[in-house]
Each structure stands twice: as C-alpha cells, then as structure tokens.
User: What shape does this take?
Amino acid sequence: MAEEKHHHLFHHKNKEEEEGPVDYEKEVKHHSHLEKVGELGAAAAGAFAMHEKHKAKKDPEHAHKHKIEEEIAAAAAVGAGGFAFHEHHDKKDAKKEQKEAEGGKHHHLF
Assistant: This one.
C-alpha cells in the first residue's frame, strides 16, 4: 500500500535545519529593535491616555467617551510595556546563547 502524505498547516523546523547556523548578533539586534518598538508604543499610548484625560476635563459633554478612550490607551501602554519587557529578556537570552556558542568568550575592548 502506498504511504499516505499528511499535509500540515504549520511546519515547525529547527532554525539550523532551515538556514544553517544561528546568527546570534542578528538575533540580539532583532530583539533590541523590538524592545525599542515596545518602549515607543508604551510611550505613545501613555501620552494618548494623558491627552484623553485632559480632554475629559475640558469637554464635560463627552467626558465619558474620553474616559473610555483614556482607559483603552492606558491598557495599550501596559501591554506595550510588557512586550518591551519580554523582548528585553529575549535579547538577554540571545546574548547568553551567543556567549555559550562562542565558548564563553567575551568581546570586550577593556
């Protein structure tokens, strides 16, 4: 009997199998970039929350709408901050893996 082939929606492969050795410096830069994106997102959402809080005081007729938008922006700021924190730790892990792959060598000038 012929072998049946199963088609899977997701194929998980080891990075080394697909692309060769892992470029740890690229990994560190990638997580560093995403960390900065998260930080900027948190700052922007926090600023928008403060703007909406100000609008709620200045526009009592629509205060409820502004208060809801303030709370949504505050939640987005917390989420973006959490994302930045997560990426910070991924960056640290990538640096640790890089150090282990290099046999514990440090590349410091001083």
Summary: DSSP finds three helices and no strands in the chain. The CA atoms of residues 31 and 55 lie 36 Å apart. The helical segments are 15-19, 24-58, 63-101.
